[in-house]
């Protein structure tokens, strides 16, 4: 008991420095590590604490879970362009992944029902097809929508992380309620800390496939973010899908960072740090992923926002590239 009190006293001292404007990455390391086991259900806070403890390869947590669902979604959606034919099992796993990824608004618009109803209709449709029975039109609508889409969203945002950081510190008595309002000055530092912490890590996806996480700002809003680099090699030329898993509200000016996270207790800030944006693929010029017109990105926003792309048809026509860009929810 005395050890816990001493540990919390140390965390309080570190939090006081943070509140006063004395920003140190070592303090954030200890604040996350010392409270990740008592995060009160705050999944974003717990995730960053787990990154501090096990940074090299992430095998569990919300970033890994969302990353695996996004990988499944784009894997099945892109099979046509990679010369593969999706099986019934592939469509089923994509549908379940997309059910988890889609926003409530997307499900209502695409499936015509709420999330719980969509889940029930999806399970019923798959069971009927397996038994050789015909699903109802309502069940088929859900299956077609969820099995024939590429949907993605960030695992969490900097706003969610900051809200949970404040909540955990307050509920654990590390800061007083009247000090919480002063934490706002540390929000940008907390966002940069999370970016630098996640940059260079990797996620363990399907069949021991590892996907690299990297920081940058290659999105329409020019917001600093962390993307996962998903790559397929069936075409000879790699098909690359860098997809955002952590999105901040920071612009790169004055905030770009290097991969060296901790230098004399500070973040090294340099710029710029960029990568090739989007999903690069050899696609026919005559096919838009939604409308049949020339390829354009498809923006569907919700809370949290996600991007949806339908599976296109392909031929051996002249080629161009399609790019996906992040767009924040209203």
Q: Which radius of gyration do the C-alpha atoms yield? A: 22 Å
| Morphology | elongated
Total number of beta strands? 10
Cα separation of the termini: 46 Å
Strand line-up across the major sheet? 1-4-5-6-7-3
Strand content: 5-15%
Structural class estimated from helices and strands: alpha+beta
Q: What is the tally of helical segments?
A: 11
Major β-sheet, in short?
Answer: 6 strands, mixed
The SSE order reads: HHHEHHHHHEEHHHEEEEEEE
Average residue-wise pLDDT: 78
Number of domains: 2
Question: What is the subunit organization of this protein?
Answer: single chain
The stretches of 5 or more residues where confidence is low (pLDDT under 50) are 257-330
Percent range for helical residues? Answer: 40-55%
Short descriptors:
330 residues; alpha+beta; 6-stranded mixed β-sheet; 10 strands; 13% strand; disordered C terminus
Task: Explain what you see.
There is one protein chain. By secondary structure, the protein is α+β, with helices and mostly antiparallel strands. The chain has 2 domains: 2-63 and 154-320, no CATH class; 86-149, no CATH class. Helices cover 40% and strands 13% of the residues. The chain has helices at 2-19, 25-33, 43-53, 62-77, 88-101, 104-111, 115-130, 137-147, 158-171, 177-180, 187-198, and strands at 57-58, 149-152, 156-157, 202-204, 210-216, 225-232, 239-247, 283-284, 307-310, 319-320. The strands form 3 sheets. A 6-stranded mixed beta sheet has the order 1-4-5-6-7-3. Helix 4 (62-77) crosses helix 5 and helix 7 (115-130) packs across helix 8 (137-147). It is elongated. The model is unreliable at 257-330 (pLDDT under 50).
